[in-house]
Amino acid sequence: MLGKSFGVLVIISVAFALFTGGGEALSSGAVDGASRAVTVALSLSGMMCLWGGIMNVFHESGATRRLSKVLSPALSKLFPTAFSTGCAKEEISSAVCANILGIGNAATPLALAAMKKMGSAVPGDRASDDMIMLTLTSVSPLSILPTTVIALRRSAGCADPFAVIVPVWICSGATFLFTVLLASACRKACSPKK
């Protein structure tokens, strides 16, 4: 659906540019945009490699287990089944840590590994409450250091790329809290009555 919508927008834009005599501006804009896209992609890929490597070292060094112990009181409330059984506990902790550091690209493989482990423990095609909570907290994570946003602002030539940190704290904290409260309310409302 998104591809079709994007295709329609491109066709309308090209037709409008040709109809209004802006064909030259359209072609130069397309070339300039493609050039900038390559520059941004290269700068972001370097940052992703750096932080992905740091997260891999973090996991391999056993720091994930220690972080899991530190975060256990909070994460055991969000993911009660995973933390009581120990299934995907380290992967969840690592994914949450990567999201807190603002490196969702490193968090995605960790969250997928956690989903795979939790999915093997759930019969049928049903998602468990912990799987739903991980999905929701991964798409609206608490971010302390928004490294991707900072890298994008820096590559765009921003004079102060770190100026967004406090607004990101406020927005990510509010959305994370709202997500957790809403998911917890839905979990309680949908749980079988005893």
Number of helices: 9
Biggest sheet architecture: none
How much of the polypeptide forms β-strand, as a percent range? under 5%
Task: Give the ordered list of helices and strands.
Answer: HHHHHHHHH
Chain-averaged pLDDT: 84
Low-confidence segments: none
**Secondary-structure class:** mainly alpha
How much helicity do the residues have?
over 70%
From the spread of the alpha carbons, the general shape counts as globular
CA-based gyration radius: 21 Å
Structure description:
- With 194 residues, the chain is mainly alpha-helical.
- The chain has one domain (35-190).
- The chain is 79% helix and 0% strand.
- It has 9 helices and no strands.
- Helix 2 (23-60) runs antiparallel to helix 8 (147-155) and helix 3 crosses helix 5.
- The radius of gyration is 21 Å and the shape is globular.
